Amino acid sequence: MSAGKLDAVAAVDLGSNSFHLVVARVVGDSPAVVDRLRERVRLAGGLDEHKRLDEATMRRALNCLERFGERLRGMPEGSVRAVGTSALRVARNAPGFLERASDVLGHRIEVVSGQEEARLIYLGVAHDIADGPQRRLVVDIGGGSTECILGEHYDAILADSLHMGCVNWSLRWFQRGLITREHLDQAILEARREVRSLERQYKQLGWGEAIGSSGSILAIAEILRAAGWCEQGISERGLKKLRKELVDVGRVDRLQLPGLSEDRRDVLVGGVAILSAIFEGLELEHMRTSQGAMREGLLHDLLGRIRHEDLRERTIRSLGERYHADLAQAGRVQATALELLQALGADWKLDDEQGTQFLSWAARLHEIGLTLSHQGYHKHGAYILENSDLPGFSRQDQQVLAALVRLHRRKFESEELERLPATLRRGTQQLAVILRLAVLFNRGRGGQSAPRIAARAQRDRIELALPPSWLRQNPLARADLEEERLRLSECGLELHVDPA
Q: pTM for this structure?
């Protein structure tokens, strides 16, 4: 899909406090926002002691997404990106909820890592403010996590996600609604302990200006402005005055601060404690604010993908270089895999851009585990892909890549597929079969060329037609194909090979 064929794009941010929908027209190379929806869902507040979302919270979230889905109705696949954050990263029943939520919304919902969330936040902020030569510190306090980023221009240099947000911090330290000096000091102290992990590295690199984004920080800035404590942004002095006022009032339900909205009242004090810790730990005197946030970052990231300026491609290249992949062999496997995909894709309904991308990426990275050890290198490669910070990739994306690399040789284990969301299992299994065959046909690593292959597929059957002369001249490949037939049959897949 090209940007020229799109009239509009949209981003859905399933935050831990609020859900946001932003719809934008595509104007030249930029998104021009035409509609915004926001609903307070309090996802983080619905996590029980076992880290499971309760039914009432899930129902509230699904009702919200149903309304968002109505607004998105008619928008084509690939024009909408929906992302979950902190609460969905920790919720143990998130996979089942996400399947229901994706059906209601009408578009696939991904969960991103804290580092990827931070990168997207920075991208949204960077596009909201004038570009300049100086390095920036960007801080975003969400409902369940706080992101800190150092960046230049449109690129994040450092990105960190701390497990504290305005919802979970308010519930932890001010659960009964009491605001005491002792509790507030303790909340700030605990937040300082979280911030300490990044203080040294951030201070060493330094920054020219500090910028805050999203609900908590924007709400605090509005209160300071309305109260006359800071004309623009947030100052250290103004923040101290706000803390004193919170303690003087003493109860969350009695807060009547100028500029404070009703839906922000019960999570304000947690956000103030976290921001105070960041000001202290990073020795800030002033922070300006930005209206840009993760949802705007999602729009720009989505347009980049559509215009083939996909950050994921840069990440794949970087991984190949870091782990010294054999580029020639990777290229041979990639070419054979894409040839097989072209033959089998329509039969298996894999003939879309996403299937092509993931098969291509997996082919290029299938041997990165060799850097660690030849023994079980497919397992090492899968571990790297699932557990590394891969800019541009969601958690589900990384799981799919890891599964393809894990399954490209040896046992074709169904357990690896069971870990994926149900909607991704079948397609991933089929792509893994294609990758396995591509690796098999290029075992000679250029010493012999891969054969011309005619292929077709039914649901659980693959038929390959190979030149008889190639089969006669390559007894090792014939043995490999027989072994592959047996391995696939254990998973209910039938491989049939005939001379062309």
A: 0.91
* Cβ proximity of 65 and 104 under 8 Å: yes
Helices assigned H by DSSP within 349-473: 353-365, 377-387, 395-406, 414-418, 422-441, 468-473
Radius of gyration of the chain (CA): 26
Predicted confidence (pLDDT) per residue in 374-424, tens digit = 999 999 999 999 999 999 999 999 999 999 999 999 999 878 888 888 889
Q: Which residue has the tokens 């020229």?
A: 4
Q: Which residues contact 100 (CB under 8 A, 6 or more apart)?
A: 58, 62
Which helix (DSSP H) or strand (DSSP E) does residue 463 occupy?
strand 461-466
Q: How far does CA 15 lie from the centroid of its chain?
A: 13
Residue 361 in contact with residue 330, Cβ under 8 Å?
Answer: no
Handedness of CA 260, 265, 267, 271 (dihedral sign): positive
Cβ–Cβ under 8 Å, residues 174 and 144 = no
- What does the block give as tokens for 474? 């390559």
Q: Count structural domains, the chain.
A: 3
User: Could you read off the pLDDT of 251-284 as tens digits, one per residue?
Assistant: 999 999 999 999 999 999 999 999 999 999 999 9
Collapsing DSSP to helix, strand or coil, 75 comes out as coil
Residues in a beta bridge with 82: 12, 109
Q: What six digits make up the tokens of 481?
A: 């194909």
In whole angstroms, what is the distance from residue 365 CA to residue 401 CA? 9
Pair (286, 206) in one structural domain: yes
Range of the domain at 10: 3-112+297-304
Asked if residue 70 and residue 177 are part of one domain, the reply reads no
Measured CA to CA in angstroms, residue 378 lies from 78, 164, 366, 383 at distances of 31, 36, 7, 9
What does residue 332 show for φ and ψ, rounded to 5 degrees? -65, -45
**Using alpha carbons only, what angle is made at residue 376 by residues 371 and 380, rounded to the nearest 5 degrees?**
50
Q: What is the DSSP string of 116-145?
A: HHHHHHHHHHHHHS---SS-EEEEEE-SS-
Do 90 and 161 fall within a single domain? no
- Phi then psi for residue 228, to 5 deg, are 80, 20
Which residues have a Cβ under 8 Å from the Cβ of 355 and sit 6 or more positions away? Answer: 341, 345, 427, 431
Question: CA–CA separation, 188 vs 169, rounded Å?
Answer: 10
Q: Is 345 contained in some domain? A: yes
Q: What is the pLDDT of residues 455-488, one digit of tens each?
A: 999 989 999 999 999 889 999 999 999 999 999 9
* Start-to-end CA span in the chain (Å): 36
DSSP lists the bridge partners of residue 11 as: 22, 81
d(CA 169, CA 268): 10
Q: What is the rounded CA–CA span in Å between residue 272 and residue 276?
A: 6
Place of tokens 């404690």: 273
Amino acid (one-letter) located at 333: V
